[in-house]
Design a protein that fits this description.
The complex is a heterodimer of chains A (333) and B (309). Chain A is an all-alpha fold. Helices cover 77% and strands 0% of the residues of chain A. Chain A has 13 helices and no strands. Chain B is 70% helix and 0% strand. Chain B has helices at residues 3-13, 18-22, 29-38, 41-63, 100-136, 138-152, 156-167, 171-181, 183-198, 201-208, 213-221, 226-249, 261-267, 277-304. The longest helix of chain B has 37 residues, at 100-136. Classes of the chains: A mainly alpha (333), B mainly alpha (309). Chains A and B meet through helix 1, helix 6, helix 7, helix 11 and helix 12 of A and helix 6, helix 7, helix 12, helix 13 and helix 14 of B.
Chain lengths: 333, 309
Amino acid sequence: MTQYLLKRLILVIPVVLGVTFFAYSMVLLTGDPASALAGVHATPEMRAALREKLGLDDPLPVQYGRFLVRIAQGDLGTSIISRIPVAIELRLFFPATIELALAAMTIAIVVGVPLGVIAAYKHNSFADLGTTFGSLVGVSMPIFWLALMLLWIFGLKLGWFPIGGRIDRSVDLQTITNLYIVDSILTLNFPALLSSLHHLVLPAVALATIPTAFIARITRSAMLDVLGENYVRTARAKGLEEKSVVSRHALKNAMLPVITVIGLQIGLLMTGAILTETIFAWPGMGRWIVNAIVARNFPVVQTGVMVFALIYVFVNLAVDVSYGWFNPRIRYN
Amino acid sequence: MSGSLAETELRGLGIPGAEDQSQGVVRSPFRDTMRRLFSNKLAIVGILMLGTVILVAFMAPWIASQHPDKNGIFQAFPQNNKLPPSMDHPMGTDVIGRDMLSLIIYGARISLLVGVFAVSLAIILGSTLGAIAGFAGGTVDNVIMRIMDIMISFPTILLALVIVVILGPGLFNAMVAVGIVSIPAFARITRASVLGESGKDYVMAARSIGAGARRVLWRHVMPNTLSPIIVAASLGIAAAILDAAALGFLGLGAQPPTPEWGLLLSRNRGYMFTSPWMVFFPGISIMFLVLGFNLLGDGLRDALDPKLG
């Protein structure tokens, strides 16, 4: 196991290097950071001096090497717009996205897996058809449209939920991790907990839609496969309760493809986060990066793109490694 | 038909099953697939939905009540602004009094074009790369697939956004960006099926009679990898339309006055609370078209691979 883990970690290194190189160099392709930094009124001489100072005239591999050394030292540069170190902004925005993504994933698993199980168990029933069609509708919806509709119905018409932000301005919260839910629990701040949960509902539901649909679909087809297996018949034949047959015997074996899909969903979740955050004025990474891309705020774009990609790489590594836990027949060699 | 002699002989021998085949229907893999596709209710719904959109897009000049001039601009009627849906304007009007239904009808052309163009680009580049990787193996395979791994690590919208910023905003560049983003998916699918096919006897046979690598790959292996690519194409068009609409929504895709659905939605966003139809209809149109492609893709998968059904 340890050996397998080490081997997988070594294999991740080239991908991580590739991701960081991509993040660094593709951003340079979008324009000249020096002119973005110097502003519109700068003379060509000023820009040239700035290029010189930033080392932008050096060969790309040299620049990339310097970039790697810098991030290894924890220096992610300074935002061109706010003049605040990117690392500090990241510490502010990253937890907001994580909170949103975890909430959405929780909803997706809690709703998607049972839906898939029921659909498979009642194969070809109305519930099955409904789940199949419903999940297709779910993956076909433009998430920004869904978010706007939720905002309109539940935020404006019914007034059940706030229409943007993470917490009421009137509520004081001492931040520790910047995950508001965690912080309010840590400081036993009940009003803050309620307010942040209240703000989290709509964006999390919007973001959860696509993963819920995917998880329900995969759970359904995996369960269909497993329910036809001999060991399920055996379990029934020896008189086990149906509940135990489905949950202990069938579901655990059907989880492998589901886990894979959950891992792959992380990428889609990040894509969704970018759009959802824009609509709900959620102060997270997605909105931060989109604004930075439009404003050519290079250090922020580089960091943001890199962080998103690295999350994807490591979540999928974790998924690969977790296979053995769900299916002990898999041997790591 | 060349088969008639054989059929007569088989019937003469009294082989069971031969009788069935001779009774009218000629069975071919294509016909079988179509039969399975058309016996799938959801797939038929998808085909009908797609047919509707394609027909509407094609018939736009005849069915829309308002038409763009030669510069693609729809005339504004400020006195008609923000009219709710009515008989005259079934989807209402927008801020400058343009008929929403007409905009959406012309928008259908754009979304169809975006989906088909982006996926064609992705198939041409992605499937070629995947086929080469799978067929060549070794270092070539490793290099190509690691680059694909890296590309797939970036959220699609983010990668498309960066590409659009490099190329400049606009509908064509957005189509290219969405196409590039879909390359790794097609590369992976093609590589997997090329690997699966390459070990089969008929490939060995082709090689043993002296066919060159290129001929074996393109003439023998590739035709057999088409099914997963067709399925992926249908589902890929759905994803491409969604991504392009998202780019339009973020202001980096199609530019005004193009009646692209994502752009319409984002331009009308500010009026959502007072005139919700301006946002509702473009969104539901995107969903309708995307759902059509998803239903068709699902149906095709079941029809092409009965084992999975």
